[in-house]
From TrEMBL:
Main location: membrane
MF-aspect GO terms: glycosyltransferase activity
Pfam family, one: Branch
GO cellular component, one term: membrane
InterPro entries in the cross-refs: BC10-like, Glyco_trans_14
Segment forming the signal sequence: none
UniProt membrane topology term: Single-pass type II membrane protein
Assigned keywords, A-Z: Glycoprotein, Glycosyltransferase, Membrane, Transferase, Transmembrane, Transmembrane helix
Transmembrane residue ranges: 27-51
Protein name (Swiss-Prot/TrEMBL): Core-2/I-branching enzyme
UniProt organism field: Medicago truncatula
Length: 411
């Protein structure tokens, strides 16, 4: 029995030892895994922090390098040569077909220098402003008139915007159409068109005289004569008179008060020849033109009253009170006489060229009219045949600023 108890005790004692060993083995394994895990996490954290430090150091280094001045070892930038923009280039007018609306155009055109003397040599020009329905059908005649005098004139054409230019355009008028709007006979938009023409012409600082012409107008003299007449004159040529009849004072609207009174109301021809100072006054007018826009409608015919009234009120002292464009009103009616091919001959043209008229002080001039209208398209072939001889279209008589033709004028 004692032996059995010993055997059982030995068996009992052997079981705990193996269990203890297994427990110790599991604990060692667990501790090993734990150490490996802790080591891996620690290593990962260290590597991650190190990489962040390296990135920050690299960025800081790049920032520091970029803030440093370039050294002589870096390639110098390529120098771009800038062309000098002189005053002449600065004053060059924009292209004829620009994107300015009327308000922008009037504002731009009204700008003027306060110093009268020009700081550069220039050739004064005459701006020929054609107010037309469509094509300038007498263009071949005008082309002969202008030929050889390119530096002494500018051309501007205001035609109906619906005109598509279907007729072949004369070279001298090519590209000279300005941005235009609808114009109706007797309507105030006729004055808007005239102001539009003046504004575009004023953008060229060399333009000193401004002539309004229709498509039915012809010149009565050669270019040198007309150029010299205008450039030498100190007067404006705007017809302005007081007409007490129903077609004069009878068109006045009392609502125009107080800007325009009946005593200030004037009438005259639409076709004018003016200097730069008056042209600036017309495009910058913010007092009288709005009154005409509002109250001169219907049978008022603003083109016969606006400019004569404005000139009489503000520019009367330098005005001759006559137009240089001849029109025949002898047949009566609302429109002047038209001339056909059969009307055109040497005697007729010489008669127009020899007309005399007087200035305000009674002194006469040896050339009363420089232009005439209304000549229909049928007159072109006859005019081309006889005009070069009668009007002395000589292509070599270029105006000389030192030897301009002299005229007996009240200057």
């Amino acid at each position: 029995m004692t032996e059995k108890m010993k055997g059982s005790n030995n068996q009992y004692q052997s079981i705990p030892i193996s269990k203890i060993f297994k427990i110790q083995l599991h604990f060692i394994n667990f501790l090993t895994y734990l150490l490996v895990l802790v080591f891996g996490l620690t290593l990962g954290i260290i590597i991650s922090f190190y990489l962040k430090e390296c990135t920050f150091s690299l960025q800081f280094t790049q920032l520091s390098l970029s803030s440093l001045p370039r050294t002589q070892h870096l390639s110098p930038p390529i120098a771009v040569k800038q062309e000098r923009v002189g005053l002449k280039d600065f004053l060059k007018p924009p292209p004829i077909m620009h994107d300015m609306d009327d308000e922008e155009l009037l504002w731009r055109a009204s700008m003027t220098a306060k110093i009268a003397e020009y700081p550069f040599e220039r050739v004064p020009k005459v701006a020929f402003m054609f107010l037309t329905r469509g094509a300038v059908f007498l263009a071949p005649l005008w082309e002969q008139f202008f030929k050889g005098h390119e530096v002494y004139y500018s051309i501007y054409v205001h035609s109906n915007p619906s005109y598509n230019g279907s007729h072949p355009e004369s070279p001298v008028f090519h590209g000279r159409r300005i941005p235009s709007k609808e114009v109706e006979w007797g309507n105030v938009n006729m004055i808007e068109a005239e102001r539009r023409l003046l504004s575009n012409a004023l953008l060229d600082i060399s333009n000193q005289r401004f002539v309004l012409i229709s498509e039915s107008c012809i010149p009565l003299f050669n270019f040198s004569t007309i150029y010299s007449y205008l450039i030498n004159s100190t007067q404006n040529y705007v017809m302005s008179y007081d007409d007490p009849s129903s077609v004069g004072r009878g068109r006045y609207n009392i609502q125009m008060l107080p800007e325009v009174s009946l005593n200030e109301w004037r009438k005259g021809s639409q076709w004018f020849e003016i200097d730069r100072e008056l042209a600036l006054g017309v495009v910058s007018d913010r007092i009288y033109f709005p009154v005409f826009q509002e109250y001169c409608k219907g049978s008022c015919y603003a083109d016969e009253h606006y400019l004569p009234t404005l000139v009489s009120i503000k520019f009367g002292e330098g005005n001759s009170n006559r137009s240089l464009t001849w029109v025949d009103w002898s047949r009566g009616g609302p429109h002047p006489a038209h001339f056909l091919r059969s009307d055109v001959n040497v005697k007729f043209l010489e008669r127009l060229r020899s007309k005399k008229c007087k200035y305000n002080n009674g002194e006469s001039t040896n050339a009363c009219f420089l232009f005439a209208r209304k000549f229909l398209p049928s007159t072109l072939s006859k005019l081309l045949k006889i005009a070069p001889k009668v009007m002395q279209f000589e292509h070599y008589d270029r105006p000389n600023k030192h030897k301009l033709l002299s005229f007996k004028q009240n200057i």
